[in-house]
Amino acid sequence: AKQNQNNMLRHKDTIILSEINSFFTSSEKAMETIFSFIRSLTFSDKRLGFPQASNLKYSNHNKLALLLLFPFFEIKTSWHYADSALYRFLSCGKDVFYRFMNDCAVDWRNLSYSLNMQLIRKVQNKSDLDNTNPRCLIIDDTDLPKTGRAIELIGKIFSHVTHTASLGFKGLFMGYHDGKSFFCLDFSLHGEKGKNQNKPYGLTPAQGRKRYSKKRDKSSKGNERVNDYFLTKINSMINMIRLAIAKGLRFDYVLVDSWFTCFELVRFIASRRIKCHFIGMIKMGKTRYDAFGKSLTAKETVDLLRRKRMTKRSKLLGYYYAETIVDFKGIQVKLFFCKSSKKGNWNGMMTTNTELTFEQAYKIYSTRWSIEVFFKESKQHLGLGKCQAQDFDAQIAATTLCMLQYNLLSVVKRFNAYETLGELFRAAQKDTLEITIAEQIWLIIIEIAAKLSEIFEIDTEVLMQKLFSENETLTKYINFKNLPQAG
Fold first, then answer.
1. Of 274, 271, 253, which Cα lies nearest the Cα of 351?
2. Which of 49-58, 288-297, 374-383, 394-403 has the lowest mean pLDDT?
3. Of the residues 163, 168, 402, 450, which has the fewest C-beta atoms closer than 10 A?
4. What distance lies between CA 279 and its chain's CA centroid?
5. By three-state DSSP, how is residue 363 classified?
């Protein structure tokens, strides 16, 4: 009986997604392509590490698939779901999604890797053989401002962009660039405790007590993400890289900006058995390197290189540069210094690959900007950081969904003729807008049909049957209207 019930549930899942998909019939439509990729992924509770769904009508993996569709139906958060066209086609309320996103037993990191590795493999299988660009892990942080003072673990963060403090989280993200496309793989949310002991995280004791608090099992996945919040970003970053390697991801370089370049990270990368390398910008600060028989800072090193007339000019990049191999606390690294004009300030870059030329290192490092594009486009189109849920588990869920949605769009964009991700996103929303318009037309048709049956004294059922048997579009639409019954 239990087996039959499981088969029935899987059948329901298939019907729900198939019926939604059937509305987008043209292969020219963006949503048709997005659906084809979603349906090609393996969604199962066992594979994604889901606990047994408490709501038997929709399995957890089916809730996940539906949540992935939200942005394309202009549903910004679960709160907006009840006002959407999708809600009127599904026989479940928003509480189904609330409970799912607030569940601390859901392993969002594992399910993210499960789906992302599938996407990456699909790209690798379809990719051109001429893609010889290096594979890179890229790590950076971004501000995720919030307005809700009652959000769990919320605090003040300092923005290096605006140089002001505001309420929110710092999001540390790690992505993978395969030489052509960027996939966001992992993240952790952090606070900034600050030096003022009377106002930890920038909050007064009274403000701190007003924040939402939730008891979690210490062994739960949700508790692991809370523990991440209190880690240093360097430790969290190293944990992410270690997990990526354990998940089978292989890469040639780890790229970071000067905020994250440190000996601890360089040593970790240099000691990996998969033979990967590090490239990062460095601060022209107090850190010392052994070069030319001396212990020198970055500024002292470039000054010495300049005096030795070891500076050159790259015609390809338009930069003046100098380079030398140094000892960084027992690890051999190559330092590059560059500036765009003779009067400009020198900037420093470090790599553990001492065979790289300046132009090669610069080209590889420029890949790092793909994570900035991810931040911009995800915030603009997918609502990254916009979740105002009080539960920290829901914050983790919402951020993971943004990552998955971006990666899905990135793959669709790669294999279709869309110049930008924004263009693809708008095309998908335009497709789903047709559902909302069609629903309004449907209500008008029902009303007209009722009136016509009265005027001509025809049975309403007969009239409707006549209409739909001779109109393929209307037939397809009435099938779509039956979606709640299918579920």
1. 253
2. 49-58
3. 163
4. 23
5. helix
Q: In the structure encoding, which two tokens stand for residue 78, read together?
A: 């679960």
Residues sharing a CB contact under 8 Å with residue 230, sequence separation 6 or more, in sequence order:
191
Angle CA 107–137–401, to nearest 5: 35
Pairing of strands 294-297, 155-158: unpaired
Tokens read off for 373: 């594009």
3-state secondary structure (DSSP) of residue 133: coil
**Helices 2-22 and 30-40 sit at what angle, rounded to 10 degrees?**
160
| C-alpha distances in Å from residue 61, one per residue of 43, 53, 243, 476 | 6, 9, 23, 26
Q: 270: part of which helix (H) or strand (E)?
A: helix 263-270
Say how far apart CA 392 and CA 179 lie, in whole Å: 34
Q: Using CA atoms in the order 226, 116, 100, 36, what is the torsion angle rounded to 10 degrees? A: 160
Angle between helices 263-270 and 233-246 (to 10 degrees): 10
DSSP string computed for 82-131? GGSHHHHHSS--HHHHHHHHH-TT--HHHHHHHHHHHHHHHHHHHS-TT-
Please give the backbone phi and psi of residue 104, each rounded to the nearest 5 degrees, phi first. -75, -5
- If phi > 0 it is left, if psi is from -120 to 50 it is alpha, else beta; for residue 360 that is alpha
Cα gap 86→15, rounded to integer Å: 15
Nearest Cα to 396, choosing from 161, 224, 269, 183? Answer: 224
Which positions ≥6 away from 59 have C-beta within 8 Å?
A: 9, 10, 13, 45, 50, 53
Q: Which amino acid is at 424?
A: L
Start-to-end C-alpha separation, the chain = 20
CA-to-CA dists, residue 320 to 224, 281, 336, 358, 402, angstroms: 47, 16, 10, 10, 40
CB atoms near residue 216 (< 10 Å): 16
Statement: the pTM of the whole predicted model exceeds 0.90:
no
Work out the percent of the chain whose per-residue pLDDT is above 70. 75
Q: What Rg do the C-alpha atoms of the chain give, in angstroms?
A: 27
Strand, helix or coil for residue 477 = helix
431-438, long-range: CB within 8 Å, 24+ apart, which pairs?
431/24, 431/29, 431/30, 431/31, 431/32, 431/72, 432/31, 432/72, 432/73, 432/74, 432/85, 432/86, 433/74, 434/23, 435/23, 435/73, 435/85, 435/86, 435/89, 435/480, 436/85, 438/477
Q: What are the helix (H) ranges across 23-59?
A: 30-40, 45-48
Q: Contact 407/421 with Cβ under 8 angstroms? A: no
Q: pLDDT tens digit string along 222-261?
A: 999 999 999 999 999 999 999 999 999 999 999 999 999 9
Burial 126-159 (b: 16+ CB within 10 A, else e): eeeeeeeebbbbbbbbbbbebeeeebbbbbbbee
Q: Closest by alpha carbon to 305, among 282, 287, 283, 289? A: 289
Element (H, E) at 169: strand 165-177
CA distance 20 to 38: 12
